[in-house]
Design goal:
By secondary structure, the protein is an alpha/beta fold. Helix 4 crosses helix 8, helix 8 (215-242) packs across helix 31 and helix 26 runs antiparallel to helix 27 (695-725). It has 35 helices and ten strands. The longest helix has 51 residues, at 766-816. A hairpin with a 7-residue loop joins strand 3 (166-168) and strand 4 (176-179). 32% of the residues are buried. The strands form two sheets. Strands 5, 6, 7, 8, 9 and 10 form a six-stranded mixed β-sheet that branches. A four-stranded mixed β-sheet has the order 2-1-4-3.
Length: 936
């Protein structure tokens, strides 16, 4: 650095000090002016001293009333304000929960149908009571009210309001609040009808109140609803802790009484738990960044603030992603033990990758037990249905339930291969996990796959179809419109809440109804089998039913031996095809040439008219020669592999044999295409007649069926052409005949008939196949009866043990903590309301002709703390055992005077900003009361 540069920097530094520390002409010190040490430069117009004194006294008057001060410019974004509001409510949540417990137990502040107002708005004579003015939104009332709150039991306005049954819309300085009854009504209504939006509900109550709907009320209602739902979740956690049911995976291990409440000395079942798992892409969520918006930066908002143990975290699921398995469910693979491994491809990555990019969550993946109770749920994140989701699900269920599990998956055949090659594979084999295919999806699989994975042919399955996920998704699809553009927080809030409500109010209520219907179905199948199976066996000349199992094994072995073409035949057919290509390229090279001499009178006209045609012929000949050389090299390579010393010609027997093999292959390819079109038609017809299919979708399906019929006719013509080319010619089909095919077994028989005539096989005749199906249906029905007998006794025992355990716990808490005892009573009533219904249906089951079970309660093996058969000992959670609560610094609210102030203050959300005020609750109430008096 040169001396000149250093001096320049030093001068600049000195100039900065003078700038920051020197007195300016406009800076006046009042003390210096009063003692005469500072002279004020007065202008000819005067007024400087008057303005100084006026500003000074104005600041003094505004002390304690910051609302009259000039509002500073707020540079915060909406997400900043939302995050600060969330943090403020989270800080006050323990106090709000204690206030909610006391209000709920005392039932004060609830809606009064006589006055249409809050019950606790009456005048109070208690010296410890104060008044707070708020705009209270209820079902039939929406007006500014003066609420009386106690100043000796609360240290925050929010908790004081919650103690009156009112949830504020802001944590520190609320101007609007919503009654708990109104929030509870919307919560229950939305769980029953997911299409009901907040805006529609607020408009509805505005119509009931006879007032104008204001858009800002929907946003304030949403804020209050979030606080209320979180309070309910915290209260639910406290109830589980009090009942000692807060251990890891307690809910999962006790999700279904019929599946998990095991008894001593009960009959052993081959599969301890039957469940179905599948993905659904209806509950997508649009990425706000993809549509030009912003994405919330609140870290872990879905798991930190909501709280639900059904959801598998993304961290847990990602453990089973890259490196856990050697393949993805999206890519086709080949496996000798899996005939459908290379057939299924859930997503075409090159086509749909851009579509998935606009979704943060592309759907959900969940598992349900055979009775419909939800087990686990996971978000499908920015992808299709990858293998990590079923792998994570199976791993979680193996950890919770142990051995002898069977899971149905629509591509369970391929997933079995994926599971065996993953890191979960050794544990799954050790615990005897079985991968199966559901009944409905199974008929879209090949016959060989059906024999191995379809529930009808698997011992121990009973009549279970493993299609529980489809029933569940038909309900959760109603949430699609509500979560498509929601935030990550509200999506994770809505989905678990709806699933939990469905488990407790729909699935649990229909539990014994399902068992009754299954028992009747099993008895009916057994009776039909007794009536028809002996006649079918007499017609076939069969005396022993064990022959059906032998036939099934023989068919399995036959289809497995014909599942792939022999390698030598494949090479011979490829060699034949290359010989045909070589001959075709040779003929293309022998083109006719047009000759013209310079002396010809037509030379000039030839050059001008036909030079382009000659160029094209030269190009074609050059390409033909190149193809000829390429085909020649391929023919030579195949001759080396096959050991052919003399090239085949059409007169050779080998050439003709290979030609027939190629014709048979083309026949099979045409059959595959025809089969896929028929299966698609079957699915479309089923959707066409499905309840809930709208008019537009029906019209769309009708057009698709019309086009499908034309495609079937075209494919049928090709199939018949290929059938005639076979040696000997194969049976041709008519359109009326092929559209009646409903099972892929019919196509498999046609396909394998190209190699040998299997019509003489005993298991290939229609009568034999009907007898086989009837026999295995009877076998599954008898297994279903055995499982239902076990489940009936489990449910009876559960009802008895749960009633005893819960009543004993409530009695203990009535003495130690009455508000918490009231919440435990509400928790117990959720399922206890259906006890009489279950007992009535169980009695009806026991009266069925053919019932072989018992209605005497057993003794459960689950006697751990918190279990229904355990010792009823309650604990008081520390969060509600503390009698004193901390005091948080609060800011004074502005006494609003009209509805327009509500939009200004609550929408800007400055009420939770720390502006230096540290007023107590008594001071806030006093200021609010003064404001009320001034307005009056």
């Amino acid at each position: 650095m040169t001396p000149q540069e250093r001096r320049a920097l030093e001068a600049l530094h000195e100039g900065q000090e003078e700038f920051f520390h020197a007195e300016t002409d406009d800076a006046y010190d009042i003390n210096s002016v009063l003692d005469g040490s500072k002279v004020i430069d007065l202008s000819h117009g005067g007024g400087e001293l008057r303005d100084l004194v006026r500003d000074l006294f104005k600041d003094v008057q505004n002390i304690g009333n910051e609302g009259l001060q000039k509002r500073r410019v707020d540079y915060r974004t909406r997400r900043d304000r939302a995050q600060r509001r969330t943090d403020a409510f989270a800080k006050e949540m323990p106090e709000l929960v204690r206030a909610y417990l006391e209000w709920s137990a005392s039932c004060t502040g609830k809606y009064c149908s006589e006055t249409g107002r809050c019950r606790n708005t009456r005048p109070s004579t208690d010296s410890n009571d104060g008044q707070v003015q708020l705009y209270v939104l209820g079902i039939f009332c929406a007006e500014k009210r003066i609420l009386h709150v106690r100043t000796d039991s609360d240290s925050s306005v929010s908790s004081a309001l919650v103690r009156q049954g009112i949830v504020p819309c802001a944590p520190l300085r609320p101007h609007t609040a919503v009654m708990v009854d109104t929030l509870e009504l919307y919560r229950v209504a939305r769980n029953r009808s997911p299409h009901l939006s907040i805006q529609a509900f607020v408009k509805t109550i505005s119509d009931l109140q006879g007032v104008q709907y204001r858009p800002y009320l929907a946003r304030l209602f949403s804020i209050a609803l979030d606080v209320y739902l979180q309070m309910r979740l915290v209260v639910n956690d406290l109830v589980l802790k009090a009942l000692r049911r807060d251990t890891p995976d307690w809910r999962l291990k006790n999700a279904c009484p019929a599946c998990t409440y095991t008894l001593e000395d009960e009959q052993n079942l081959k599969f301890k738990l039957l469940f179905a798992m599948d993905g659904n892409d209806s509950l997508k969520r649009i990425s706000r960044a993809a549509i030009g918006g912003y994405e919330s930066t609140a870290k872990d908002v879905g798991e930190r603030f909501i709280g639900d143990d059904r959801y598998l975290s993304r961290t847990f699921v990602d453990q089973f992603g890259m490196g856990c398995s050697d393949e993805s469910l999206m890519e086709p693979t080949a496996d000798n033990d899996n005939p459908c491994a290379g057939r299924w491809k859930n997503m075409k990555e090159d086509v749909t990758s851009r579509m998935w990019g606009i979704f943060d969550e592309a759907g959900i993946f969940m598992a349900v037990c055979r009775h419909g109770f939800s087990l686990v749920v996971a978000d499908i994140v920015r992808s299709g249905e990858q293998s990590k989701y079923p792998l994570a699900t199976v791993s979680k269920l193996l950890d919770a339930f142990g051995d002898s599990l069977a899971g149905g998956y629509d591509i369970g055949c391929k997933f079995g291969t994926t599971l065996s090659r993953s890191t979960v594979g050794p544990r799954a084999r050790a615990l005897k996990y079985t991968s199966l295919v559901p009944a409905f999806h199974g008929y879209a699989h090949r016959r060989l796959c059906q024999l191995r994975f379809l529930a009808r042919y698997v011992d121990g399955m009973g009549l279970e179809d493993l299609e529980g996920c489809e029933h569940m998704f038909s309900k959760t699809n109603g949430l699609a419109s509500a979560v498509r553009y929601a935030s990550a927080f509200h999506r994770r809030q809505a989905i678990p809440a709806y699933i939990a409500h469905n488990d407790e109010h729909e699935v649990y209520q229909n539990l014994t109804t399902m068992i009754l219907n299954n028992y009747r179905q099993a008895l009916r199948v057994i009776q039909e089998g007794k009536n028809t199976l002996p006649h079918l066996m007499d017609d076939l000349g069969i005396t022993d039913v064990s022959v059906f199992s032998a036939w099934l094994l023989e068919e399995n072995e036959y289809l497995a031996s014909r599942s792939r073409e022999p390698e030598e035949e494949t090479l011979q057919m490829e060699y034949w095809q290359k010989l045909v290509n070589l001959d075709a390229s040779r003929h293309l090279g022998d083109l006719a040439w047009t000759v013209a001499t310079p002396c010809s009178t037509r030379t000039s006209s030839f050059v001008q008219r036909d030079i382009a045609a000659t160029t094209r012929k030269e190009t074609m000949r050059r390409h033909a020669m190149e193809n000829f050389e390429k085909d020649l090299r391929m023919v030579q390579d195949l001759e080396v592999k096959l050991g052919i010393t003399k090239r085949w010609v059409p007169e050779d027997e080998e050439w003709q044999t290979a030609g027939r093999l190629v014709a048979n292959r083309k026949y099979q390819r045409c059959l595959d295409q025809l089969e896929s079109l028929i299966v698609a038609r079957i699915f479309e017809l089923s959707k066409m007649n499905q309840a809930g299919t709208g008019y537009k979708l029906r019209k769309h399906i009708a057009k698709a069926l019309k086009a499908r019929s034309a495609a079937i006719r075209t494919a049928l013509d090709r199939f018949n052409t290929a059938a005639r080319a076979c040696s000997p010619p194969r049976r041709q089909l008519t359109f009326e005949e092929v559209v009646e095919y409903t099972f892929l077994a019919d196509f498999d028989l046609l396909r394998n008939a190209t190699r040998e005539d299997i019509s003489q096989r005993p298991w290939a005749s229609p009568a034999a196949r009907a007898a086989m199906d009837q026999y295995f249906k009877v076998c599954r029905a008898e297994e279903e009866i055995e499982r239902l007998n076990v489940e009936v006794r489990r449910i009876l025992t559960y009802l008895h043990d749960e009633d005893r355990y819960m009543k004993a716990c409530i009695a203990q808490l009535q003495v130690s903590h009455p508000p918490l005892a009231y919440q435990v009573q509400l928790y117990y009533n959720v399922r206890a309301r259906f006890t009489d219904h279950h007992l009535h249906l169980l009695a009806e089951i026991s009266g069925l002709h053919g019932f072989t079970g018992t209605t005497l309660p057993g003794k459960s093996t689950k006697t751990n703390p918190g279990d229904s058969a355990g010792e009823p000992v309650t604990v008081i959670p520390p969060a509600v055992s503390i009698s004193t609560v901390p005091t948080f610094p609060l800011a004074a609210p502005d006494p609003g005077d009209d509805n327009s102030d509500l939009d200004e203050f609550d929408a800007d959300e400055d009420e939770y900003e720390d502006d230096g005020s540290t007023l107590t609750l008594q001071e806030i109430i006093r200021i609010s009361s003064d404001g009320c008096g001034a307005q009056e």
